């Protein structure tokens, strides 16, 4: 379970100065090999399985150096250091639809328009 590519990516080089990690460079260069995918799944699966809320899931992922973002109908996993998209959550075995059903999709709350002008008393002279 050891890869020379992983060793090269984790060494402190010019990539470290640019906030690159092994995960972000794997996606950036289309180099997410089977070994890296397995390592990612092993590391993150417990957080996906044990989380009871979106907040718990976000905290668990953040603790490992990742965050999620929804785009084009999919939930994507990003490297927190470089902000590079790594893969979809479905690739890890947790499709967006399943997560939304489990945690309930959070939709933006829109406030009803206020009618301040109609409610304000008109000053008479």
Automatic annotation (TrEMBL):
Biased composition (Polar residues): 11-27
Sequence ranges of Basic and acidic residues compositional bias: 1-10
Stretches the record annotates as Disordered: 1-30
Protein name: Aspartate-semialdehyde dehydrogenase
Organism this protein belongs to: Pseudophaeobacter arcticus
């Amino acid at each position: 379970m050891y890869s020379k590519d992983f060793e090269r990516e984790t060494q402190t080089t010019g990539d470290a100065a640019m906030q690159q990690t092994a995960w972000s460079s794997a996606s950036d260069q289309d180099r997410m090999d089977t070994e890296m995918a397995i390592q990612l799944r092993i590391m993150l699966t417990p957080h996906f399985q044990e989380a009871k809320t979106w907040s718990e899931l976000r905290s668990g992922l953040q603790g490992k150096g990742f965050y999620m973002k929804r785009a084009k109908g999919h939930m994507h996993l990003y490297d927190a250091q470089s902000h590079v998209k790594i893969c979809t959550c479905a690739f890890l075995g947790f499709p967006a639809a399943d997560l939304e059903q489990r945690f309930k999709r959070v939709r933006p709350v829109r406030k009803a328009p206020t009618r301040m002008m109609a409610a304000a008393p008109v000053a008479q002279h």
